Amino acid sequence: MHKKHLRIAIVLLLAIFISPLVKAQNADQKWGVGLYLNFNDYKGDIANDFWKFKNTEPLIGSATLNRYLNPSFDALVRLSYFNVESSGTLGYFDDWMFNANLNMKYKFNNGYLLKEDAVISPFLVAGLGYTNMNAKGNVMGGGFKQKYDNINFYYGAGLTFKIDDRWSVAVESGIFYPLNDKYDGYKNKQRDTEAYHDKFMHNTIGVIYSFGKSADSDGDGVSDKRDECPGTPSGVAVDKKGCPLDSDGDGVADYMDECPMLAGDPLLDGCPDSDGDGVADKKDKCPDVKGLVQFDGCPDSDGDGVQDSEDKCPTVKGLKAFEGCPDTDGDGVIDSKDKCPTTKPGYKVDVNGCALDNDKDGVVNEEDKCPEVAGLSSNYGCPEVKAEVQKELEFAAKNVHFSSGKDVLTVKSRKILDEVVEILNNYPAYSLKISGYTDSQGKDEMNRILSEKRANATKKFLTEKGIDANRIVAKGFGEVEPIATNATAAGRALNRRVEFEMFIK
C-alpha cells in the first residue's frame, strides 16, 4: 500500500515542478493566503469516527499559502495543528498533530470545464507532507505516551465560493494517510490491512485572500485578465475593457481611423463611401457617381477601360489606344475613319483601313500569289501563263526522252529541261506537275514503277538547277493514256514520255 502512495506522491511532485513551465493565461493575483477552522476525525484499529464529528472540536488550526500556476493547477503549502481523540473497546487515545504538506490543486474552473470566473469552483487536491504527533492513551490495558515523526500522504476535494476579486471562502474534506500505523497506540499485524490502517479525516472551512500585482502586458491600465484587447499598441487611449477608443462607432479604432469622427467602412480605413464604389469620399474624384477603383471612383459606362471623362466614344465599347473608340476589324483604324470596316484579321491596311493591293489588280496582298505583278482574281492575282510559254512546255515535254527500260535522261533531254528551269524562274508563283508514262512493253506494275522513276528523275534534274522541290509534283502512271500506238517502235517511243502542267497551289 505504501509503494502505491509513494508512486502517487512522485507524480504529484513532478507535476508541481513542471506546471510553471506550461504556457498559461496569467491571473491578476497569483498568490493567496488562507486561514481555516479544522474538524478532524479518526479511523483505525480502535474506532471509525469518519463523518460522525462526535470527538471533534473546531480549531483555527490551518494556514495555507497558494501559488497560481496556470488555469488548471495551483501549488499550495498547508500548515496544520489539530487534535484528534477517540475511544473504543480496545481503549482510547488523545493526539496533538502538527502537519506540513506540499499539495497540488486541480481546479475545474480552468476555462474547459467551468469558466475561470465561476462563482462556485470545485477542486481536487493531493500531495505529500510531514507529520509530527504527540500521542497518549491507554490501549489493551496498557498506557502509552509517544512522539511520532512520519511522512504522510494527503488527498481531498472541495469547493471555492468567490466573493470578489480578492476574497473567497473554501470548504474542503481530505484524508491524511501517515506511513506509521501506531498513532492510536496500537498495531496488530493480523489486522495490518487498509481497513485498520490509521487515517485522519481533515474537514476545513476558511477564508482566502488573494494578492499580487495584476499583469498588464500592453500597459494600457487594464489588467490582462479583464483586457478584451490585450495587444493594444503603447500610448493608445482605451476604454474600460482595454479596447482602443472608436469615437464614430464604425468598428475602426480612432488611432487607425482616417476619418475618426465620421462612421465609415472598415475596409476603407473607417472613411465613408457615399456612392458605394469602394473609393472613400475623400479620395473619390466622382463622389456622387458610382465608379471604379482604378479610375479613382469615376465611371466607365461602356466598360472599355477608359473612364467616361476621357472616352471619345463613351457609349460604345472601344480600345484604350483609340481613346475609347472601337476598331471592329482590329486593323488599327477606328470605325469612324475606316472605309473598309470588315477587313479580315491580320491583313495590312492603308490609312483608310482598306487592305493593301500593291499591284492594283483587285486582289489584296494577303490573297495575291503574285502581289507585285498584276494578274487575274480567278488566278489568285497572278497573270496567266502566256500561250507561247505553254507551247514551249508542250514542246519540251515531247522531247524529254529516256534510255529504253531506264529512268536515265538523254543528253538532248537535259538541254530541253534547261528551258523549263527558265520558265519556272519567270513564273515563281507557279508550281509544276510532272506526269511520267511508258509504252506497253513489260508488265504493268513494272511500267508504273518505271514511269514513277522517270518523273522523279525529271524532278531531280530541275531541283538540281535550283527549283524548290516544294514547287514540283512528280507522279508515274505507267502505260495508261498512250498518245500513239504501241504496235510500232515509233509509237512506243512517243508513249515513253513526260508531261508538264503549270498550276498555282
TrEMBL record:
Residues 1-24 form the signal peptide. The keyword Transmembrane applies. Pfam families: OMP_b-brl, OmpA, TSP_3. It is found in: Cell outer membrane. Its main location: membrane. Keywords: Cell outer membrane, Ion transport, Membrane, Porin, Signal, Transmembrane, Transmembrane beta strand, Transport. It is a multi-pass membrane protein. The keyword Ion transport applies. Residues 389-505 form the OmpA-like domain. InterPro entries: Bact_OuterMem_StrucFunc, Beta-barrel_OMP, OMP/PagP_B-barrel, OMP_bac, OmpA-like, OmpA-like_sf, Thrombospondin_3-like_rpt, TSP_type-3_rpt. This is OmpA family protein.
